[in-house]
Amino acid sequence: MAQLSNHPDDAMMSTTDVAGLARLTLDGQARITEANTQAKIWFPELVPGQSQLCDAWLVGQDLQIIDRNYRPIHLPSLVQGELAEPYLGLAGARDTQWVQWHHHRQGRKTILTLVDVSPLMNELFTMQDSFEEASIRDYATGLYNRRYAMERLEQMYLHAKRYHNPFTIALVDVDHFKRINDTFGYAFGDNVIEQLAGVLVRSLRETDICARYAGEEFMVLMPETETQEAILSLDRLRQQVSELKWTNMQRPVTVSSGVISWQPNKSVEQLMFLADQRLSTAKKAGRNQVCGDLV
Ligand SMILES: Nc1nc2c(ncn2[C@@H]2O[C@H](COP(=O)(O)OP(=O)(O)OP(=O)(O)O)[C@@H](O)[C@H]2O)c(=O)[nH]1
Q1: Does residue 238 contact residue 200 with C-beta atoms inside 8 Å?
Q2: Residues marked as catalytic
Q3: 282 CA from centroid of ligand 1 (Å)
Q4: What domains lie within the chain, and their CATH numbers?
Q5: pLDDT in tens, 116-173
Q6: Which of 139, 172, 216 to mutate to test the pocket of ligand 1 (most atoms within 8 A of CB)?
C-alpha cells in the first residue's frame, strides 16, 4: 500500500499515482499542462493543454481556495509564486465537497495536489453542530437552558416592540418539591423533573420554547399567544401533570404557573418580575393552579 510522506517535496513526487490524490500541473498562466487520473475524474472538463484554471472556474465548482486563516486565495497569486511555500489550505463549502490542497512551485510550473477531506470535514461540522446544540440545552431534561430562553425572550421582546406581535411568558414550578425529595429521595425528584419536562414539551405547541429555568422551575415562551389562550394551555398542562401516576407515590405531583403577556410599557425585567409575582400568587392561593393577568 502506498505510504504518504509528510514532507511536501516527497509528497509531490509520490502523489501522481496514489489513490485519492489529484495532481494538476499549471504553467505561469494557470494553464493545465498535466493532470493525473484522479484529477481527470474530479474535474473532467479540465483538459490538459487546453484548459486554464481561473477564479471563475472555482466559483462555478462552488469551491473557494482559502488559506489556513480562512482568507480566500486568488489563483493568480498562486501561479505567480506570490504565496509562501509550501502552502496548505482547504477548498469547499459547507455541505459540499472539501478538498485539502497543497501547492508547490517547480521553476515556472505550479503543482497543485488535492485530496478529498469531505468525510473529515463533515464529521467536524457534525461535532460542531452537536456542541452548539448542547450549549443551549439543559443536560438532564433536554429542554432549552435558561441562558438560551432569556436570549429568545430578548429577541421576542424586540420583535413585539417593533411589530406588536403578542407573546406570553409562563413560569411553571413544581409544588412542594422539597417534600418529594425529602420523602422519596433526590433521585426520584430528578426523575419527576425529567418526566415533567416531557409532559411540558408534549402538551404545549411546537413553536413554544420550553426551558428549565432553575431546579424545579420551568419557563415557557409562547409566541403569538395572548393571555387567555396561554392560561388555557397552562391549565391543560396542569391537569395532565396532576393525572400522572407515580410508582411508590400515591399523592399526585402538581404544578403552579404564573403567566404574563407582553405589554408595550414593560421591560423584560418587569415582565419576568410580574410572571414571578403571579407564580407566588398561585402558590399562596393553594398551588395546583395558574395565575395570569387578565388586564
Ligand atoms: N431532585 C432535585 N431536586 C432539586 C433540583 N433542583 C432543586 N431541587 C430541590 O427542589 C426543592 C425546592 O424547594 P422549595 O424552593 O422550598 O420549593 P417547594 O418545596 O417546591 O415549595 P413550593 O414551590 O412553595 O411549592 C429544594 O429542596 C431543592 O433542593 C434538582 O435538579 N433535582
Answers
A1: no
A2: 216
A3: 17
A4: 8-121 (3.30.450.20), 136-292 (3.30.70.270)
A5: 777 887 888 889 889 999 999 999 999 999 999 999 999 999 999 999 999 999 999 9
A6: 216
